[in-house]
Amino acid sequence: MKLITTYGLVQMPPPCRRCSGLLMSKLRASSSENASDYDMNALFQILPRDLHDNLLNKSRHARLLEVIMDLGRLPEACYLGESSRQYLRDTEVSMKELEYAQNAVGEFGEDNRAGIEGTLHRISAIRNREGKVVGLTCRVGRAIRGHIDMVQDLLQYGKSILFVGRPGVGKTTVMREIARVLSEELQKRVVIVDTSNEIGGGGDVSHPAIGGARRLHVSEPLMQHRVMIEAVENHMPEVIIVDEIGTEADVNACRSIAERGVMLVGTAHGERLKNIVENPTLCDLIGGVETVILGDQEARTRKCRKTILERKAPPTFPFCVEMRKRHYWVTHRVYCSTFDLFLCLWC
Q: Locate the AAA+ ATPase domain: which residues (predicted)?
């Protein structure tokens, strides 16, 4: 089945040529050229000395995505634009090295994530059954100005936007830049619900990459929906930014916030818009789906089966951006005609 993307009719100023029709653009500048606002050395300091020196001396460390250290295995590095990971040395990672990195990072949260204070880097732990750390994924965090140029026009509408993409495609980086643009350039009151301190960085002081946006910390990942509602009730935001919407409670909180007239910018895991439609938990973000039984005459008129799927409600997120690759995005206006056409083809 092919998903046909259309744009519903809405009463708003016409978007610029980059946003009219199917948006499939490429950024003109690579991330390695623009990523100047992050501290690589802070990440290297938690690694064993030989890995630190090895990575620092490589000319392509500006394209480094993550370093993986698993107990009893060779340490690996993953680079932007390269499908295969590369070994950093020919000796295996020891428990002593993992303990050193863990002590340098500090305490991990309940989601087994931690940050390095003053930076955007994220450290994720793998634990054994006894709770001991036996592996670390050290992901590089970057602030890239200009990264949202191809969808910046959408921000001026004041409508909620959902970014959909697989893990590692750059959704969190986009959230940072959107927070900066909305708070500094468009002078909006922006509040970030930062569940894992990924958007605003580690520590109590937010990273400059988010501009003038304020940040609410979340003590437990399962409490994200409550903090979202708290942000609306206590801090009078014009925009709320939330990363990784994934539970039914998160979805309900998003709908509640949208109904109060607050713009939402969020992310969810998926490859395409159709993945959100097919997800029973997340489909309410774009209107929801219900089964309807048609009468015989109506079914003949529509030339379809008697049991069909229909949209339940208006979408929480009028815009959906598919991040298919880091520099290859497709945007949809998720208004009635778009969603209904997809359900018609699906049936």
A: 157-313
What is residue 277's three-state secondary structure?
helix
Contact 246, 171 (CB under 8 A): no
Contacts of 205 by beta carbon, 8 Å cutoff, 6+ apart: 118
Dihedrals phi, psi of 338, to nearest 5 degrees: -65, -50
Please count the other Cβ atoms lying within 10 Å of the Cβ belonging to residue 329.
Answer: 24
Residue 330 and residue 23: Cα distance in Å, rounded? 5
CA–CA separation, 19 and 269 (whole Å): 23
Cα separation, 263 vs 266, whole angstroms: 10
Question: Quick check: helix, strand or coil at residue 211?
Answer: coil
Among all chains, which residue has been given the structure tokens 């468009």? 186
Q: How many residues does the chain have?
A: 347
- DSSP-derived secondary structure letter, 134: E
Tell whether the model's pLDDT for residue 151 goes beyond 60: yes
Asked whether the beta carbons of 63 and 81 are under 8 A apart, the reply is yes
For 71-84, give the DSSP string: BTS--EEEETT-SS
> Which residue bears the tokens 């951006």?
321
What per-residue confidence (pLDDT) applies to 214? 96
Are 37 and 209 spatial neighbours (Cβ–Cβ below 8 Å)?
A: yes
Cβ atoms < 10 Å from Cβ of 133: 19
